[in-house]
């Protein structure tokens, strides 16, 4: 055991690498660069108003909007820059993609290209940043499908979540945490602000299969499909309803913080496909929100789904594709999938939402 009594992230990665004697070390170097970017973001977040980092990004006089049509916060842009600058130089990446960039980012010369692709949401929940609520960064590592020395294309990134080599997130809350899966369970690290190191504090995280806590943005309830409405109604009915137990509800509006709570004590999170905006089949993005969080959940014994299918099996069609997402305690996610698969109850046949969309769409 190291002198401090706890393993650092570096020591954890070295031990994991011993399982793969042929590994080059590129992967570990990449994860350590990602962790460094997260530490830089954590510092910027922690300084808040003192660091003049709050508020909207003012690219032009009217602010800036990302590819999603969302107003960018100063910290969205800064966090994106940290990810790019801190990971591009090391020779382990063939390209990057981010929520904040419309097209894939090419590794600039003179830096060598490498064998991995990095996909990230540099700051999740950034609408919460000005009110000092927890935010985080989410990342996913894929293998580049080519060894040719060419620019990364959008098609290179369109791999189902099952192909992820690793995924994780950093949470900038009361403490800064880094949660990682390299496909061998899930480990949580807490930033020691004095040492500037992520220390292993939560080895082998697991999501309990049962829960009495659910998280959903209930202001969208009029747009929900019948199976989601049924699930939530049954939770709300509590002890005297069909579930015969009381449920509690949570909604932080930072998915990364909800994922962390669920990883710590169980729960279920829903941002399902709904009819709010016909152009958006869901709120969250498949490649840099749903897939990495889905990978972490499944590695921790939980489940992640579109409501109909395991989310990790979905073949992506676009870099910024949105998708319905349900994740967390296994038995609750399975129940929600069952409700989607069951034929509609007679009383639901009048619900226009039920006619509008086929039950078999993703
Ligand atoms: O307030 P809404 O519209 O329901 O959206 C909340 C969701 O949006 C997000 O903030 C989207 O992520 P970004 O902040 O990275 O755009 C999720 O973290 C969160 O669950
Ligand atoms: Mg996000
Ligand atoms: Mg974001």
TrEMBL record:
Fructose-1-6-bisphosphatase class 1 C-terminal domain boundaries: 207-340
Cofactors that this protein relies on: Mg(2+)
EC number: 3.1.3.11
Pathway: Carbohydrate biosynthesis; Calvin cycle
Catalyzed reactions per annotation: beta-D-fructose 1,6-bisphosphate + H2O = beta-D-fructose 6-phosphate + phosphate
Residues annotated as binding Mg(2+) 1: 99, 121, 123
Gene3D superfamilies, sorted: 3.40.190.80, Fructose-1,6-Bisphosphatase, subunit A, domain 1
Binding site for substrate: 124-127, 217
Free-text cofactor note: Binds 2 magnesium ions per subunit.
Gene Ontology molecular function: fructose 1,6-bisphosphate 1-phosphatase activity
Main location: cytoplasm
Family: Belongs to the FBPase class 1 family.
Quaternary structure and interacting proteins, as annotated: Homotetramer.
Protein name (record): Fructose-1,6-bisphosphatase class 1
Lineage: Bacteria, Pseudomonadati, Pseudomonadota, Betaproteobacteria, Burkholderiales
């Amino acid at each position: 055991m190291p002198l401090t009594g706890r393993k650092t992230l570096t020591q954890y990665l070295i031990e994991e690498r011993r399982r793969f004697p042929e590994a080059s070390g590129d992967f570990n170097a990449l994860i350590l660069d990602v962790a460094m970017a997260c530490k830089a973001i954590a510092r910027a977040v922690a300084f808040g108003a003192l660091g003049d980092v709050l508020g909207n990004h003012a690219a032009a006089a009217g602010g800036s909007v990302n590819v999603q049509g969302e107003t960018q916060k100063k910290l969205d842009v800064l966090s994106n820059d940290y990810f790019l600058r801190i990971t591009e130089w090391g020779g382990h990446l063939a390209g990057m993609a981010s929520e904040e960039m419309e097209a894939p980012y090419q590794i600039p010369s003179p830096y060598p290209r490498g064998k991995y692709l990095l996909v990230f949401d540099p700051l999740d929940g950034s609408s919460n940043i000005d009110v000092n609520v927890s935010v985080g960064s989410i990342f996913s590592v894929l293998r580049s499908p080519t060894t040719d020395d060419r620019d990364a294309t959008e098609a290179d990134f369109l791999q189902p979540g099952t192909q992820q080599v690793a995924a994780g997130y950093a949470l900038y809350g009361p403490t800064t945490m880094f949660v990682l899966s390299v496909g061998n369970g899930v480990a949580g690290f807490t930033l020691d602000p004095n040492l500037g190191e992520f220390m292993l504090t939560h080895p082998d995280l697991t999501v309990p299969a049962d829960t009495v806590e659910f998280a959903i943005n209930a202001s969208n309830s009029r747009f929900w499909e019948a199976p989601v409405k049924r699930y939530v109604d049954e939770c709300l009915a509590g002890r005297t309803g069909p579930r015969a137990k009381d449920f509690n509800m949570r909604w932080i509006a930072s998915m990364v913080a909800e994922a962390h709570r669920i990883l710590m004590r169980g729960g279920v999170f829903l941002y399902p496909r709904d009819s709010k905006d016909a152009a958006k089949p869901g709120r969250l993005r498949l490649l840099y929100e749903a897939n990495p969080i889905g990978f972490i959940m499944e590695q921790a014994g939980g489940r992640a789904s579109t409501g109909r299918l395991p989310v990790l099996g979905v073949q992506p069609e676009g870099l910024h594709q949105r998708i319905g997402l349900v994740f967390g305690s296994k038995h609750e996610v399975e129940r929600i999938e069952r409700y989607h698969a069951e034929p509609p109850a007679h009383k639901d046949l009048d619900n226009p939402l039920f006619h509008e969309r086929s039950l078999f769409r993703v």
